[in-house]
């Protein structure tokens, strides 16, 4: 099948007088329709890929904050080179190091929630203090927030690391 086809028609009038041939062209637009549908499909597909996906973040109400026992907390300091330093309670000198693997940060969080559940009877009492350092990446923060969802930790706080913690990290 041709995309354009020329039709010839011979027109003759009176005898002896011959006129030129009248040529008419007919363009087949089927490929253009196919291209149009492909473009529509492409643009619909790309707009569905570009939809915004955001994590829901619940913020506390303004006012006096609740008091949490220190033994219910674990601090995660997000460091450079995909390292996480952590300590339970309020003793940063007992800081240990792990990574973002499931055997790393996830197991640390699960161990802390089990300790809190054994001591206080409710694993949801666990409070995780997430402290990104200036050297960590945005990906590290997102990975840590993902771990909060995976381990079903409902109480966590994003906060700055204090000077004492930053000095201990640099050692």
Structure description:
- InterPro entries: ExbD (IPR003400).
- One of its GO terms (molecular function) is transmembrane transporter activity.
- It is a single chain.
- The protein has 171 residues and is of the alpha/beta class.
- It has two domains: 4-49, no CATH class; 70-170, 2-Layer Sandwich (Nucleotidyltransferase, domain 5), CATH 3.30.420.270.
- The protein has helices spanning 30-49, 102-120, 138-150, 163-170; strands at 4-9, 22-27, 73-78, 84-88, 96-98, 127-132, 155-158.
- The strands form two sheets. A five-stranded mixed beta sheet has the order 5-4-3-6-7, covered by helices on one side. Strands 1-2 form a two-stranded antiparallel ribbon.
- The radius of gyration is 35 Å and the shape is rod-shaped.
Distance between the termini: 77 Å
Spatial order of strands in the largest sheet: 5-4-3-6-7
The SS-based structural class is: alpha/beta
Count helical runs. 4
* Residue share in β-strands: 15-25%
Mean pLDDT across the residues is: 83
CATH fold field value of the largest domain: Nucleotidyltransferase, domain 5
CATH architecture label name of the largest domain: 2-Layer Sandwich
Any low-confidence stretches, pLDDT <50, length ≥5?
none
Organism: Ilyomonas limi
Membrane topology: Single-pass membrane protein; Single-pass type II membrane protein
InterPro entries: ExbD
GO cellular component, one term: plasma membrane
List descriptors:
171 residues, alpha/beta, Nucleotidyltransferase, domain 5, 5-stranded mixed beta sheet, two-stranded antiparallel sheet, 7 strands, 35% helix, cell membrane, transport, transmembrane helix
């Amino acid at each position: 099948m041709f995309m354009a086809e020329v039709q010839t028609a011979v027109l003759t009038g009176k005898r002896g007088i011959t006129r030129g041939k009248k040529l008419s062209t007919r363009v087949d637009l089927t490929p253009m329709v196919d291209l149009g549908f492909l473009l529509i499909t492409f643009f619909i597909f790309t707009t569905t890929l570009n939809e915004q996906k955001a994590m829901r973040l619940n913020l506390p109400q303004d006012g006096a904050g609740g008091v949490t026992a220190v033994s219910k907390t674990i601090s995660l300091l997000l460091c450079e080179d995909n390292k996480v330093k952590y300590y339970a309670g309020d003793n940063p000198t007992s800081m240990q190091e792990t990574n973002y693997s499931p055997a790393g940060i996830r197991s640390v969080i699960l161990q802390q929630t089990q300790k809190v559940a054994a001591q206080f009877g409710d694993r949801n009492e666990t409070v995780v203090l997430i402290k990104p350092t200036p050297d960590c990446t945005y990906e590290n923060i997102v990975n840590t927030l993902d771990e909060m969802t995976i381990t079903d930790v409902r109480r966590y706080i994003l906060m700055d690391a204090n000077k004492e913690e930053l000095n201990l990290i640099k050692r």
